[in-house]
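Homework-ish question, so no full write-ups if that breaks the rules, but can someone show me the predicted structure for this set?
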Amino acid sequence: MFALVDCNNFYVSCERVFMPSLEGRPVVVLSNNDGNVVARSNEVKALGLEFGAPYHKCRDFIARYGVQVFSSNYALYGDLSLRVMETLARFSPSMEIYSIDEAFLHLPSSRRFDIMEWGSRIRATVRQWTGIPVSIGIGPTKTLAKLANRLAKKRFPDRGVFDISGCTDMDDLLESVFVGDIWGIGHSYSAMLARHGVTNARQFRGLPDHWIKKRMTVTGLRTAWELRGRPCLDLEEMAPPRKGIVSSRSFGRPVESLGELREALASYVGRAAAKLRRQGSAASFLGVFLATNRFKAEPQYSNFTAVRLPVPSSYTPELLVPALACLESIYRPGFRYKKTGIMLSEIVAECDAVRSLFEDQGASGRKRRLSETVDRINGRLGAGRLFYAAEGMGKSWQMRRSLLSPAYTTRWSEIPVVKAL
DNA sequence: TCTGGGGTCCTAGGACCC
DNA sequence: TCTGGGGTCCTAGGACCC
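A: Not a homework solution, just the prediction itself:
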């Protein structure tokens, strides 16, 4: 049996933890650069505002309904996510952290305990310890647990727990579920299925295997089997190391000069290299891209170039030099750039990385110690405390975050103060 | 003034090998 | 009228997820 625990409107709930006056009021959180609406409270969903709506296109709507708006505050969301996951870990020996706001828990199939009661206890504990409301779906496969979670949110919002394995009228239940709401069936497949008259989960589940495999590959077939109660997806307790790492950001304003692009790229390289080191890997291949704003009616240019590194590396300066060379080779003056970024690939475990025959043993030890020291200091004092001079001091190109809430839990100066009256 | 930032997996088809 | 039978590797593109 699997349980999927999903935080309700996670980013909105995080904002509400330290601002209870937002409870019951319409709230949205924007993507990086205050671009699009990426989280909506139930009140906003009820008003009909779409996920992904560009902020500058829904300002009227927001003003009309008095919606509270926040920039993304990943310091806060990341920390609260950690607290939720630590709490969940107490309820099951095996757990998979699936995303910032979701986790699968494994529960033994021996039904010596009351599943619903177990779910309710998890829900109450997470709420009390972290302030975050969650919903819980339970089922014999991950896909069914996902579905149960949806139903818990939509149909039993007060109880917040739904066990699909206890359902006696599965056919009726699945018939009431839109096929595109099944985990693993996105826009294209649900449109394709609709063309063949398949619009609900019951119809999809009944399709012949060969028909599904031919049109939706083995991934689609696995989804159907999981829906029928045959587990095809295991709990992945250990997150496998990333096979590719991308770091990029849109600029807060158009950037034209190579100097500013170099600074921005240098800071993304620093972040990507730190991610690489955190998972104990080194990259063999490095790519850089550069692009203007495709939404604007002005001269457009975008390009990408990549190089193979002489030896796999996670040492920031060894990535910085080729990255900046790549940037210079694709940079064309006279454009208003919106975004640049770095992609690291062909990632290997550091211990497996092929070394250079001519490597200076002393130097490589110093590089490693320097990286460890920088990472440790930034881990304690906050990301970006120590950085390479190539990143520049001004960073006037940084993304807009005009509606940012405080880092309530991760910055001393912003920790809320409780005053006795 | 103004539209995010990450990831994964699968398949078809071409190039090439014996 | 007729044109073998296996393989591997790589890439581009398409699908999905949060």
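Now go work out the reasoning yourself. Hint: The two ends of chain A are 49 Å apart (CA to CA).
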